[in-house]
Amino acid sequence: MWSSFFTAINALFATPSPKYEAKYPINDLAVTPQMGWNNWNAFACSVNEHLLLSTAEKLAAVGLRDIGYQYIVLDDCWSLGRDEMGNLRYDPAKFPHGMKYVADQLHSMGFLFGMYSDAGSYTCARYAGSLGYEEQDAKTFASWDVDYLKYDNCFNEGLSGSPKITAERFRAMKHALKSTGRSILYAMCNWGEDYPWKWAHTIANSWRMSGDIYDSFDRPDPHCPCTGEEGYDCSYAGSHCSVMNILNKAAYVVHTSMPGAWNDLDMLEVGNGGMDYEEYKTHFSMWAALKSPLLMGNDVNTIDAKAISILSNPAVIAINQDPAGMPVNRMWRYYVNDTDVYGQGEIQMWSGALSGGDQVVILLNAGNSARMMNATLEEIFRHETGIAPEIKEDWDIYDLWANRMDEATAQTILDGTGVAPAGVYYNVTELSFKDGLAAGSPVLLGKLVGSVEAGGVIEREVPRHGVAMLRLRRSKTRLRAASAHQVPLGL
């Protein structure tokens, strides 16, 4: 039921009727998932004016701003409490020129400014929260020319435990932000508490659907008690959640995302050192395909060539920014015999519709060794009822990682001695992803690596903890008369 409902909603937003203008749930922001950088994962409370501005300069210099990472989001620990009038104060030792100055500097560089607060009496680091001060704090943020608010969930005075109670608490800030008259993206961070994917669409532009991410591919941790093994019904999502933990929980709720309102799987860990290259590629691929906001959480002033190669891949980002706004769905999941120190491995196949009739397919190998994986067109295009007509068509296959920037080129960009070739880089300030996709821009499609005939099978070797991420595009419009046949899955 939910799947059919949200498919219909997404179809409405993707193709508005000529008579009525499509309306997004709360505002006209985050029509595609927001992209940017947040300081918390790499710096926690070690924040100041210089960090934000130097990060922005680096993002611009290496091309990450122009490929879409536009928000610079300041997280916790910036405050010095409230003044005698109850207004929030920034710490002048950390921000000597003030928050309005930071916003002005970021805007002059082509970025947008993100701020942090909490829907509780205190923030998670025990600074002043906004509970009971929503209107006053929203006016303060607007006066600082803030463009984005990350709104956390600590010290909430027990105002949780049911969707109604939690929704009312977060809705207060929604109304406060709207009353300022300033356009401010609203990112709820309530860790999936009280099922925000069921009610947050009319409150926020995004909502955290799980506990805080940890820089690990699949390590279990007692701080993250829910696993998503038998559905996702968790009263405490916790923290130190691995990529696979979050992914396996997201599988049950991603269909509730829509343009303007997204499930947020938490910030990206790419470049922070806890995972290897293939694991970071998997992390980035899945966050992009599930239409999670893409907020980098690394130190970009020490970023390496491998991280740049991942974070700047236009063919993968184009999946995240696809105007249809349809997340992938997990079509199957199997356990495999090879295990690592953290237990039994698994393999999965995800598939989802893209604008223009394309399809994205992901073969994910969370096992402990490389393996051949395959998926039939019948599995890829499985519909709720009947046989999908796409099974009777031929498809070209594009590898979305095959044309990524090579590390040697990435290093020259980091060194300031080179620029990315046109064939591996995309500048969204020159042509939006929507227009680039409509025009069939080759850099957004990946590398053509083959085709699959009607009723056929796609097969790829997938590295340990890696993915094969593919875009399917119709190679022939003629429907075949032959019925699609089922090909057994080989593990």
UniProtKB/TrEMBL annotation:
EC id: 3.2.1.22
Matching CDD domains: GH27
Any one Gene Ontology BP term: melibiose catabolic process
InterPro entries: Aldolase_TIM, GH, Glyco_hydro_27, Glyco_hydro_27/36_CS, Glyco_hydro_b, Glyco_hydro_melibiase, Melibiase_C
Record keyword Translocase present: no
Top-level taxon: Eukaryota
Alpha galactosidase C-terminal domain sequence ranges: 344-411
Gene3D superfamilies referenced in this protein's UniProt entry, alphabetically: Aldolase class I, Golgi alpha-mannosidase II
Subcellular locations according to the entry: Secreted
One MF term in the entry's GO annotations: alpha-galactosidase activity
Record Pfam families: Melibiase_2 (PF16499), Melibiase_C (PF17801)
Recorded GO CC terms: extracellular region
Keyword Disulfide bond in annotation: yes
Transmembrane segments: none
Subunit comment: Homotetramer.
Family as reported in the entry's similarity comment: Belongs to the glycosyl hydrolase 27 family.
Protein's UniProt name: Alpha-galactosidase
Organism: Lipomyces starkeyi NRRL Y-11557
Lineage: Eukaryota, Fungi, Dikarya, Ascomycota, Saccharomycotina
